[in-house]
Amino acid sequence: MKKAVIFDLDGTLTDSLMSIKVSADKAMEKFGFGPYTEEQYKYFVGDGAPVLIERCLEAGGDKEHSFFEEAYAEYQKIFEKYCMYQVVPYEGIKELLAELKARGIKTAVLSNKPDCRTQDVIKAVFGEKDFDIVQGQTAEFARKPSPEGLQMILKRFGLTPEDILYLGDTGTDMQTGKSAGAFTIGALWGFRKKEELLENHADAVIENPLQLLAYL
Fold this sequence. Notes:
This protein has a six-stranded parallel beta sheet, sandwiched between helices. The mean pLDDT is 97. With 216 residues, the protein is α/β, with parallel strands linked by helices. Strand 7, helix 9 (194-199) and strand 8 (204-206) form a beta-alpha-beta unit. It has nine helices and eight strands.
C-alpha cells in the first residue's frame, strides 16, 4: 500500500497552458517574436520558466538568448498578473484527491513553476486543504528532472521512494520520478504524448486520474 502521491502541476493537476501562452506571448511581443501556437507551448513548458523563455527566444530566431535577461524579467512581471488565466483542474482530479484523502494517503505537489506562482495556483484552484505539501521551484534545490525536490518532500513526509507514486505528464517528470526511485506514472491527459512518457521509462500510463487508484 502506497502512503503518498506526489503530483506535477501544469499538465497534470491543472490545464494551465493558456496562462503560460498569454504571458509568454506578451513578453515576446516586446522583442518582435511570436505569438506561438498552443501546440508549440506544450513543448516549450515543463522545464521551468527560464527554459520556457529560452525556447520562446529560440523559436523567434534568438539562438544565443541575447534577450534572455530582459525577456525573463518581462515574463515574470506579466505572469504574476496572468498566472490564473483560464486555469482549471482536469476532469477527475478533484475526485481523485477526495478519494486519496478518504484513504489516508498523503499528497504533495512538486512543480518547476516558481514557488510563489505554484502556491497561488494551488490556493486558487484547490484551496488550502487538498495537499499536505506544495512545493514550486526555489533556489534551494535543482529543478526537475533532478530528484532533489522529490527527495526533499520524501524527507518531510518521513517516507521512502517505495512508499509513493509520482504522477506527471512529461518526459522530465518521468526522469524525475525514476531517478528518485519512485513508481512513476504518466498522465495522458497532459501536454505530451504517450511515446515520450514510455521512452522516459514510465512504469505505467493512465488515461484519466481515477485510474491511479489501481496502483496504490
